[in-house]
Design a protein that fits this description.
Helix content is about 25%, strand content about 20%. Strands 1-2-3 form a three-stranded antiparallel β-sheet, with no helix packed on it.
Length: about 140
Amino acid sequence: MMKKFNGTLIAGVAVTLLTVQGCAKLWVSKGLTDDGQATELVFPDIQKDATLKEGIFVNQANLRQMAPGMTKEQIYALLGRPHFREGIGEVREWDYIFNFRNAADSTYATCQYKVLFDKNLKARNFYWLPASCAGKLNTPVH
């Protein structure tokens, strides 16, 4: 004898599956290896995907402390939460939007920062978009 399925249960499972599918990040870097390397870096679209589109004026002293081997908790303490919907579970990359003031005037540059984690969720590699943003850490803060 077949048991009758509960319609509420089926609806709940369907909503859960759609929610998890909707949270799937389309911008995950390609070919992520166990040691935190990627064959193709993919940066998310700020306008379409950021939860904090305006970014933050990051504490540069904190950013200079970033190093391979750091845990997510250590990075969170230094930089705060990632600025995109990073997904659930064993997420292996975090993305940020940082603003850096220009010394000459009141304008600022916006840069994206990516942290890739290894299979043990330790930070291994760090990337900038554009790559020239890495030089912002060598500029004195005024």
